Amino acid sequence: MKKISAYFILLILLISITSCSLSKNTNKDIFHYKNSYVGNNSAVGSIIKQLPNHNDFIKMSLQTKKKPYGITIDYKNLPANTKNIVINNATYLFALIKNVEWIVFDFADQKYTVTRQQLDEWYGKDLSSYTNEKELEELIHTNLKDKTKINHLFKK
């Protein structure tokens, strides 16, 4: 009986170690995707699924046939803080994906288009130069404090 109990405990231990290892691998640091390309739909999808409002993400379309390359992201709902989500998510996508030049965020009948050049100028920084999440988060949060600056970005 002791031998069976020892095997059972060993099996449980092995299963728990394996599941912890697997969960660490599936929740990668988002900067693992740094220098991805628009054509890598797996990387683009993985980035989107780690960004705010990912629970409302429906689908994405990648424009890879001709330059400028871009991404259209469809969401189910229009959240209350839509502009903040657009800025945050576009910032990450431009920082991580080398060749994306424009992104359309389609929130249930409300569309926002952001270009790399537009966002780089808005921040006054080249987003592709960021190499870690902490620095990028600081940049985003500092700029999201200024509501006038946010509204200026979306003027047409």
Describe the structure concisely for a colleague.
The chain is of the alpha+beta class and 156 residues long. The chain has helices at residues 2-26, 41-48, 82-96, 116-123, 133-144, 147-153, and strands at 57-63, 70-75, 102-107, 110-115.
Which key phrases capture this entry?
156 residues; single chain; 4 strands; alpha+beta
Large-scale geometry: globular
Rg? 20 Å
Mean pLDDT: 88
Helix content: 40-55%
Total count of helical runs of at least 4 residues: 6
Beta fraction of the residues?
15-25%
The N- and C-terminal alpha carbons lie at a distance of: 76 Å
> How would a crystallographer describe the biggest sheet?
4 strands, mixed
Structural class: alpha+beta
- Sequence of strands across the biggest β-sheet: 1-2-3-4
Beta strands, count: 4
SSE string, helices as H and strands as E: HHEEHEEHHH
Low-confidence segments, ≥5 residues, pLDDT <50? 18-26
Please give a structural write-up.
The protein has a 4-stranded mixed sheet with strand order 1-2-3-4. It contains 6 helices and 4 strands, in the order ααββαββααα. Helices cover 48% and strands 16% of the residues. A hairpin with a 2-residue loop joins strand 3 and strand 4 (110-115). The protein has 156 residues and is of the alpha+beta class. It has helices at residues 2-26, 41-48, 82-96, 116-123, 133-144, 147-153, and strands at 57-63, 70-75, 102-107, 110-115.
